[in-house]
Amino acid sequence: MSHPIRVLIADDHAVIRRALTLMLEFEADIDVAGVATNGQEAVTMAKAIRPEIVVLDVKMPLLDGVEAGRKILALLPHTKLLMVSSEDSKAMIEESLQIGASGYIAKHCSLMQVPGAIRQIMGGNTYLCLASSRALAAT
Length: 139
Known about the structure:
Layout: E1 5-10, H1 14-25, E2 30-36, H2 39-49, E3 53-57, H3 65-75, E4 80-85, H4 90-98, E5 103-106, H5 114-122, E6 127-128, H6 130-137
Parallel strand pairs: 1-2, 1-3, 3-4, 4-5, 5-6
């Protein structure tokens, strides 16, 4: 078996952070290497722990997820981003993908999709939950 996928979780909601951490800890091929509570902390932690993928909330204090993602990718261009958000507007999804995010999951979709999304993204694919796919396809 290869090494576990190193993940950084960044979300300003304690319940979401805890749920994602607990869920991912049960995955043998995923290692939660760090947990950040805001966008600025996510950038600082990413520099320190060099995760393979960052699960990044779009709406966070100090630095929103899009700007944090932009900074993380500038520092660590091989790191992947999986955006999670309570917002699934077409504009937000497009902006996330334009900065280089490899996936987007609206929080009203099941967060149980996160482990599979991480694996798909690490396999070189893009991942969108069904609601995000539909929002993106809407004219």
